[in-house]
């Protein structure tokens, strides 16, 4: 069943209220005209033989009219039979007492509401002819107004009703358009949310499971090469790969639980997580590179979880690049707490590269790290700066503002 939005329901209720208001007005007008016609007849023709018939037919006409709303406005057999009886009683009344002719105006509305367009217009024309005939019977002589006024009144009544119906139909159409637009907007938002979540998950997997699997592959390949010549070193590589697999397993379980980094879930905040990351990377790489961690300042308030998670993932991704590509002997993580922002520097003394020439590897297995870092920081309104040159090492700086604001622009050293 289609659900309407509050605004659509409000518009629908407004249209229903207009229709009900017009119906109540016509009902009141009918009984007022019927009472006025009966009073006029009784005052002008007291004690006539037809008086009991006029009173009885008036009561019957009123009773029939009261039944109408119960039958509804659809052209069902019962409603058509009721409308025929109502018009027939009114016609008999007009023949007996022409003053009842003006009750035709509410009957116009009734016929237009129930009958199809052509049938309703034929009924209006028939009722108008009876009104003209009745007015001519009451007149002392020929009066053109009596011939022209009833058709004019019928035309105005019909035009008002048709206009009201078209307005109601237009309103229903606008409500339908609004509902369709709302559904399309909701579908678009769901698609955008799905794409954003997929991008986030791809970055999470790249910075954890993919990097860990890559390290395991390198260690196992090294163990395979030294298995016969240096079994002790091979076993050490295997133990290191086992440790990485344990961390990957913890990360995978954390993905299932709440997608939070396992180091942060262990407590201690970002500072402790970075120290643990530095120690683990040093142990896994067997001292090449040696990773140190330094924290400057202290946060004035608790960092948002998404900021801590993003910076930790950036540190993991940057250190994975250092281990795999930089051929560095030392690396350093420096976290600086400032009044208005938090800054993470990842520096190494490796062979470096030319940032301006770095375009990644589209379509390849590698090359996702830096774009993932930029995407994470862009979501937080932060910026990424890369300072490097061939033979001079690399410094990757991630800065995140601690106040709400628009995303920071990329610096010249941050190639796209």
From TrEMBL:
Cofactor: [4Fe-4S] cluster
CDD domains in the cross-refs: HATPase_UhpB-NarQ-NarX-like (cd16917)
Keywords, comma-separated and alphabetical: 4Fe-4S, Cytoplasm, Iron, Iron-sulfur, Kinase, Membrane, Metal-binding, Transferase, Transmembrane, Transmembrane helix, Two-component regulatory system
Catalytic activity: ATP + protein L-histidine = ADP + protein N-phospho-L-histidine
Pfam families: HATPase_c, HisKA_3
Highest taxon, organism lineage: Bacteria
EC number(s) reported in the record: 2.7.13.3
Keyword hit for Phosphoprotein: no
Annotated signal sequence range: none
One example GO MF annotation: kinase activity
Entry-linked Gene3D superfamilies: 1.20.5.1930, Histidine kinase-like ATPase, C-terminal domain (3.30.565.10)
Residues that span the membrane, as ranges: 22-43, 50-68, 80-109, 121-139, 145-162
Subcellular localization, as worded in the UniProt entry: Cytoplasm
Residues of the Histidine kinase domain: 311-404
Predominant location: cytoplasm
Transmembrane keyword on record: yes
Function, as annotated: Member of the two-component regulatory system NreB/NreC involved in the control of dissimilatory nitrate/nitrite reduction in response to oxygen. NreB functions as a direct oxygen sensor histidine kinase which is autophosphorylated, in the absence of oxygen, probably at the conserved histidine residue, and transfers its phosphate group probably to a conserved aspartate residue of NreC. NreB/NreC activates the expression of the nitrate (narGHJI) and nitrite (nir) reductase operons, as well as the putative nitrate transporter gene narT.
Official protein name in the record: Oxygen sensor histidine kinase NreB
Organism annotation: Streptomyces laculatispora
Classification lineage: Bacteria, Bacillati, Actinomycetota, Actinomycetes, Kitasatosporales
């Amino acid at each position: 069943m289609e659900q309407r939005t509050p605004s659509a329901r409000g518009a629908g209720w407004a249209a229903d209220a207009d229709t009900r208001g017009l119906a109540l007005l016509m009902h009141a007008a009918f009984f007022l005209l019927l009472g006025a016609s009966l009073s006029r007849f009784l005052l002008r023709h007291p004690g006539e033989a037809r008086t009991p018939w006029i009173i009885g037919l008036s009561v019957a006409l009123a009773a029939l009219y009261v039944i109408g709303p119960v039958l509804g406005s659809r052209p069902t057999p019962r409603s058509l039979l009721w409308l025929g009886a109502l018009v027939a009683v009114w016609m008999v009344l007009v023949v007996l007492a022409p003053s009842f002719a003006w009750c035709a105006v509410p009957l116009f509305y009734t016929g237009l509401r129930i009958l199809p367009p052509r049938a309703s217009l034929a009924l209006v024309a028939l009722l108008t002819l009876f009104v003209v005939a009745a007015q001519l019977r009451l007149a002392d002589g020929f009066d053109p107004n009596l011939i022209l006024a009833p058709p004019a009144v019928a035309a105005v009544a019909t035009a008002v009703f048709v206009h009201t119906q078209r307005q109601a139909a237009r309103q229903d159409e606008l409500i339908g358009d609004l509902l369709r637009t709302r559904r399309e907007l909701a579908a678009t938002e769901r698609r955008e949310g799905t794409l954003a979540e997929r991008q986030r998950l791809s970055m999470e997997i790249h910075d954890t499971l993919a990097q860990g699997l890559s390290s395991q592959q390198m260690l196992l390949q090294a163990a395979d090469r030294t298995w016969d010549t240096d079994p002790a070193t091979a076993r050490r590589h295997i133990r290191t790969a086992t440790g990485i697999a344990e961390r990957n397993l913890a990360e995978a379980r954390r993905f299932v639980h709440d997608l939070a980094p396992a180091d942060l879930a262990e407590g201690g905040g970002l500072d402790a997580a970075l120290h643990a990351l530095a120690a683990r990377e040093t142990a896994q790489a067997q001292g090449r590179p040696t990773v140190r961690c330094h924290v400057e300042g202290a946060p004035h308030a608790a960092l948002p979880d998404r900021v801590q998670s993003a910076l930790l993932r950036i540190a993991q991704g940057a250190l994975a690049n250092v281990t795999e590509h930089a051929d560095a002997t030392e690396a350093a993580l420096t976290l600086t707490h400032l009044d208005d922002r938090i800054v993470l520097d990842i520096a190494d003394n490796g062979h470096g590269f030319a940032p301006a020439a770095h375009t990644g590897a589209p379509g390849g297995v590698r090359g996702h790290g830096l774009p993932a870092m930029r995407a994470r920081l862009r979501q937080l309104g932060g910026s990424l700066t890369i300072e490097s040159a061939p033979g001079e090492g690399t410094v990757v700086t991630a800065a995140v503002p601690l106040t709400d604001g628009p995303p920071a622009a990329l610096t010249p050293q941050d190639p796209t």
